[in-house]
Amino acid sequence: MTQRMKFWGRQPAFYQAQLALTMAAKKGLGDPVLAELVVLRASQLNRCAFCIDMHVKNLREAGVSRQRIDLLPAWEEAGDLYSARERAALAFAEAVTVLTEGHVPDEVYERAAAHFDERELAHLLAVIVAINNWNRVNVTVRQPAGSEL
Amino acid sequence: MQWAKLAPEVYKAMIALDAAAKKGLDPTLVELVKIRASQLNKCAFCLDMHIRDARGAGETEERIYLLSAWAEAEEYYTDKERAALALTEAVTVVTEGFVPDEVYERAAAHFEEPELAQLIALITTINAWNRFGVSTRMTPGRA
Predict the structure, then answer these.
(1) Distance (Å, rounded) from C-alpha B100 to C-alpha B46?
(2) Interchain proximity A136–B41, CB inside 8 Å
């Protein structure tokens, strides 16, 4: 895979705003492990190799088990390896990420709303939106896994 | 849910992101890209806003209502606009094709690298607004 463009160096203001968005979202959610799981799942769906590499490393550093990282693409079939709250967040993340398939069905939204209060849910949504931004840029410019931005 | 009120710092960052993304791009092209992404993502609020903006800026009715079929209405859009619209579709529905080389190269043939980076930023930003809008079921204003 060849990098198409060094995007982030060309877009310093956009990069700063994207960082601010990400930090505001994560801070408001207040659950770093959940945020990393959601962000890794979105990156898997969007096939962002750079992002997957980064967030797997973050999860390992946070002490999350290898099994919980490895089975994330099949989280629905992994029983209680993920909590009900995590599963609701992952279902929401998938719906918001692959937006054009279903446009976030009511049942997915309501399941998330049952586990998160409105403020948490707004920030969970922001975490998902922010990683989709990182994913879209990095996929479009073919940012290599493990590279410097 | 009123996400902007519940997450004011997030909203502030989105405004900064949007301003950074639009900077220096042709405003006519900006609205075409924003309308097309909002059509694909079915964000009614965003579509309503950007069609009004485009109309206010003097965009023609034909170019607005043919946008959902732009590839079949070539004579209404410039080559550069069509290259940008193809890239918009590929980046928006990223899970179908993951931005194929031909789409990227077509855009790269019409946009120098700094402008292409700007265009990519714009496309991801409208996708972000669309995701907020659709997920929270933001409703369009009434005329």
Answers:
(1) 26
(2) no
* Cα A141-A12-B27 angle, rounded to 5 deg: 80
**Residue B101 and residue B90 in contact, taking contact as beta carbons nearer than 8 Å:** no
Domain A20-140 in CATH 3.90.1150.10? The answer is no
Question: H/E element holding B118?
Answer: helix B113-135
Query: Hunting for tokens 């959940």 — which residue is that?
Result: A34
Q: What is the pLDDT of residues A3-28, one digit of tens each?
A: 999 999 999 999 999 999 999 999 99
pTM: 0.96
Domain boundaries along the sequence of chain B: 15-135
- Would an 8 Å CB–CB cutoff place B76 in contact with chain A? no
Residues of chain B numbered 9-28 and touching chain A (CB < 8 Å)? 9-10, 12-14, 16-17, 19-21, 23
Residue ranges of alpha helices (H) inside A76-117 are: 84-97, 106-115
Q: Which of A7, A20, A139 sits opposite B16 (nearest CB)?
A: A20
* Distance separating alpha carbons of residues B108 and B87, to the nearest angstrom: 10
Superfamily, domain B15-135: AhpD-like (1.20.1290.10)
Residue A39: how many CB atoms within 10 A of its CB?
28
Nearest of A132, A124, A108 to residue A45 by alpha carbon: A132
CB atoms within 10 A of CB B1: 18
Cα dist from B95 to A43, A136, A139, B89, whole Å: 11, 10, 10, 11
What is the C-alpha end-to-end distance of chain A, expressed in Å? Answer: 16
Dmax (CA) for chain A in angstroms is 44
**Is residue A1 very low, low, confident or very high in pLDDT (cuts 50, 70, 90)?**
confident
Contact indicator for B45, B137 with CB cutoff of 8 Å: no
Two tokens, residue B60: 């023609």
